[in-house]
Amino acid sequence: MRVHRSAHKDHFTVLPNEMLQRVKLRNGPRGLLAFLLSLPDGWRMTAQQMAAITGDSLWATRKALRDLTRAGYYTVVKTRLANGRIISVQHVTDTPAQFAPGDGPPVPGPPAPSKTKEQSKETSLPPRLPEPPVIPRPDTRPEPQPQPQPQPQAQAQPQAQPQPQPQPQPRTAPRPPAPVPALDDRTGPAAALLLRVVRPEPRLRIGEAEAARLAPLVAHWIDLGSTPADLAAALLPGLPEHVHFPAGFIHRRLIDKRPALPAPRAPLPTCPSCHDPVPRPGPCPPCGRAPDTPPAPLTGSARAFAREAVRAAQQARSRILTPAAR
Predict the structure, then answer these.
(1) Last residue of a domain, which of 256, 286, 308?
(2) What is the pLDDT of residues 172-191, one digit of tens each?
(3) Where is this region: Disordered (predicted)?
(4) Considering 256, 280, 310, which residue would you say is the last residue of a domain?
(5) What confidence score (pLDDT) does residue 198 get?
(6) What average pLDDT is seen over the chain?
(7) Is 183:212 a contact under the CB 8 Å cutoff?
(8) What is the 3-state secondary structure of 27-59?
């Protein structure tokens, strides 16, 4: 390892190797100790200010201070002032347990002499210590470019005419309230139903004009088959602690919780032959019955047998009719 060190003339702090190379001292407390040793004497800084500057959390900063206290590099002692007030003083050292001889617990002091009210205000507080340093941020703004100087004009410019002063604008008249829509046979019962549903809930109290404006939405709910119980279940549960605009709240819920449209019914099936309605797709029972099948053609022996049967039937008929004819 090669170590490169720069020569400093001012604004630097010399730290002993014993502190920087101390075994079992974590890097977090070691870095915080180096930061505290770089501050001037008499500085006062809280753990919150240390955490804000170093970028560590408040918990990690306090844990690092406890580690430095156990190692002997940091301590906080209480000191009694001349007026009897006790303050806490922080002590930081680069050598363990090498604090100033006067540092220690508070000792009893003489009682403070009686003073006037103005004097007691001036001496009741300890001397104000300087504020922590503020690390300036680098200025990233672009450098301003030099502006070209205006050239003198050869001819005199005409004198500028004074600009007219703007006239004050007249106050606009307040907007008139929105007109109340007229109710009909459909929206009138819907507005009455809405008032009846929200009456048990004080946070949703609305007037007749607001109910008339919301009536078309409620009528749409009724057209979809909703009952007063369905409307109450959609508007009343889960209300916030304060409802500042009940009409707008009801309008939002009537839109967000609108019931779905009922599914369209399938058309009734009909018979493809006679077009009569049937319970299921397909032909009706009369049309679905198989037609009478034609007789199968006769073979040679069957045809001869049929001819003999016909001839025998004709002969028998002729014998029956012959005696009657005589």
Answers:
(1) 256
(2) 666 666 777 788 888 999 99
(3) 95-185
(4) 256
(5) 93
(6) 75
(7) yes
(8) HHHHHHHHHHHCCCCCCCCCHHHHHHHHCCCHH
CA angle at 203 for the pair 197 and 207, rounded to the nearest 5°: 60
Q: What's the rounded Cα separation, in Å, for the pair 22 and 30?
A: 9
Helix (H, G, I), strand (E, B) or coil at 324: helix
Query: Model confidence at 85, in pLDDT bands (50, 70, 90)?
Result: confident
Tokens linked to 87: 């303050």
Residue 213 lies in domain: 187-256
Name the pLDDT band for 197 (thresholds 50, 70, 90). very high
Buried b / exposed e across 221-251, counting CB within 10 Å, b at 16+? Answer: bbeeebeeebbeebbeeeeeeebeebbebbe
Residue 169 lies in a domain: no
Report how far apart, in Å, the C-alpha atoms of 106 and of each of 77, 103, 124, 162 are: 8, 9, 17, 76
Q: How many CB atoms lie within 10 A of CB 2?
A: 3
> What is the C-alpha separation between 23 and 168, in angstroms, rounded?
78
Which is it for the CA torsion 272, 276, 282, 287, positive or negative?
A: negative
pLDDT at 192: 92
pLDDT per residue as tens digits for the range 90-148: 888 888 766 544 444 444 444 444 444 454 444 444 444 445 454 455 555 655 666 66
Note the pLDDT of residue 30.
Answer: 86
- Is the separation of the CB atoms in 75 and 98 below 8 Å? no
The reported pTM is 0.33
Q: Which amino acid is at 198?
A: V
How many structural domains does the chain have?
A: 2
> Is the residue at 92 inside a domain?
yes
Q: Enter the tokens of residue 105.
A: 């617990």
Whether 312 maps to a domain, the answer reads no
Q: Which CATH number do you get for residue 30? A: 1.10.10.10
Per DSSP, which regions of the chain are E strands?
Answer: 74-80, 86-92
Cβ neighbourhood burial of 220 (10 Å; 0-12, 13-18, 19+) = middle
| In-domain check, residue 155 | no
